[in-house]
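Supplementary notes for students who missed Thursday's class. We covered one full example, reproduced here. Read the sequence, then the structure, then the short commentary at the end.
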Amino acid sequence: MLEGLLKEAVELIKESAKRKLVLRVFGGVAVEYHCPSFQLPCLNREVADIDFFGLSKQSPQLEKTFIDLGYIPAVKFNIYHGAKRLLFYEPKTNGKRDIFLDFFEMCHRFDFRKRLAVSDFSIPLSDLLMTKLQIVEINVRDYKDIISILVDHEVSDKESEEEINCNYIANLCATDWGLYKTSTRNLEWTKSYLEKTELGTDLKARVNERMRKLIKEIDEEPKSAKWKLRGLIGERMSWYDEPEAPKVMKLGE
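Structure (token representation):
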């Protein structure tokens, strides 16, 4: 099933590029694309939908593209949320095809408008990792994706399609205490989950070393004045946003 989703994502991105539209994948399909380790039994997981990223200024053209290709729009949802997000259904499976626009806003907020130019298929690996590290109520699926990304990709000080840019991540965390708190906590929790997996000793050591390097870079990055002031308050005040509960949508709504 996942191969089908990956193939579908490739076709959608190619068609969008033909129309001079920016469309990038993230979520489980992006992890599968970048990470051979995703196929390991201890890291594999079910993926039912495809999540994309695009630009709000191209929202009408993206909507037309998906409709032209036979996807069923969530009409009411797209009318109310079309500046930030579009939703479609694949007609054969009724699977969701989400398109987030400009910003990723869940537990923490990220501006991906300029970041979509880094890669032709997915959001950058660094951002893909951060969409997982920013989750406050992190779960097994997220741990598996974090580990897959770190098994297969170097933590580097430069930007490339197949490397994790630790400088970029450290800078994000140095300007936002809440993001720092969630991300470093989740890296520590991922270490604990890693030890419970059936991943080989060498691969566990590789992941631990890459997490160690990432945490070191995050901790050593000079922090902003705003970060330091927020840090004085600590956990006495919530440091994250509560993601809006998914609304149950009927097909075509």
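Commentary. The first helix runs from residue 2 to 18. The radius of gyration is 18 Å. If anything here is unclear, bring it to office hours.
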